[in-house]
Amino acid sequence: MALPPFETFLEEHRTPVYRLLLAMVGPHAADDCFQDTFLSALRAYPRLPAGSNLRAWVMTIATRKAFDHLRAQKRRAVPVAEVPEQPVGAPELNGEPELWRAVRSLPPMQRAAVVHRYVFDLTYEDVGRALGCSEEAARANAYEGRRRLKKLLEVTT
Amino acid sequence: MKELRMLRTTEIDDLSARATGLFRDRAEQARLVDVAVATVDSPIGDLLVAGTRKGLVRISFPDEGHGDVVEELAIMLSPRVLEAPARLDDVRRELDEYFDGRRRRFDLRLDMSLTHGFTKKVLQATARIPFGSVSTYRDVARRAGNDRAYRAAGNALGSNPIPIVVPCHRVLHSDGGLGGYGGGLDVKRFLLRLEHALD
Fold it and tell me: Architecture of A1-82 per CATH?
């Protein structure tokens, strides 16, 4: 089967990609990461073998963009007085902002593993592929992330 | 962990739609769009128009199915097909003016790369038939270099990738019969009346 038109590909995957990025980098950086993801995808698209798993491919690109963003953010980070994480009215994923804040307080690999595993229901093999690590590492990160999340949520609630 | 899946999908859909709009602009700026497509509304229904960097490459009628046409463009030209309405602003404007009766001649760059050989020659001959006049299958065949190939000329016109702008509706049978039309004979009649070439 030939590659679908990029337009079709974009329409089919834009919302899951946005959801992933919202969970990974939060509402402020999601737009930039989203555009970077699809620009990279568009650049590479004609060279992609027909019959590729397009969802897995674009989610892997998005994960990499999220990691890039988090790395850059860490480099830029200067300790300052507490800044509110969410300005009032910023879009949130659901009615539980504290859950998402907790997710985004996880280290990047654990965060990515938790999101891919529990938001998108991927198998550990596919989580590993998206994160660029082994299946075992994906499992370990998801497990550790989940453990930490539970602890964080117990403390705050 | 079930809570993680309870996401408001409509809201995320809106956010991703907005981000997609910004992405389209950046893709166009980065010159990554090989085939830009847009929809133009007209008295004969929504037309799909497509352009490459060389020019207007395709116009399709509603009954061709826009999805099918976009797929065809991805296969024939490049999979980098994207809705990029801004690039097609000139096409939209000239089509609007034509349907309003304010334009008799299109002034657009054309990309004829979806046609080859005799078909291309027939369409090039057809492109020179002026507004308000008509020609015959035999005549365009002759101008394309083979006056006996009027049936082939008919097929060539039937496969015209840029109807309206390459005015295949101006080609009729020698006996005055309407002949055929990709968009349907009603559309052919409509266009000829618009040009006052038919009562």
Answer: Orthogonal Bundle (1.10)
pLDDT of residue B42: 97
- Selected catalytic residue, list B168, B171, B172, B187: B168
Q: The complex's ipTM?
A: 0.89
Interface A-B, measured as beta-carbon pairs within 8 A, has a size of 109
pLDDT tens track for A95-134: 567 788 888 899 999 999 999 998 888 999 999 999 999 9
Q: What is the DSSP letter of A117?
A: I
CATH class, range A96-157: mainly alpha
What span, in angstroms and rounded, lies between the C-alpha atoms of A19 and B181?
47
> What pLDDT, on a 0 to 100 scale, did the predictor assign at position A96?
67
Give one DSSP letter per residue of B135-180, joined into a string: EEHHHHHHHTT-TT-HHHHHHHHHT-SSTTTS-GGGEE-TTS----
The structural domains of chain B, ordered by start, are 7-99 (3.30.160), 117-194 (1.10.10.10)
Q: Are A91 and B15 in contact (CB under 8 A)?
A: yes
Give the DSSP H or E segment for B3: none
pTM: 0.87
Query: Which two three-digit tokens encode residue B7?
Result: 């996401």
Q: Does A156 touch chain B (CB under 8 A)?
A: no
Can you tell me the distance from the alpha carbon of B25 to that of B30, in angstroms, rounded to the nearest whole number?
Answer: 9
A99 Cβ contact partners less than 8 Å away, ≥ 6 residues apart = A149, A153, B3, B4
**Beta bridge mates, B40:** B47
A41-65 pLDDT, tens digit per residue, is 999 999 999 889 999 999 999 999 9
Within 8 A of A95 by CB-CB distance, chain B residues are 6
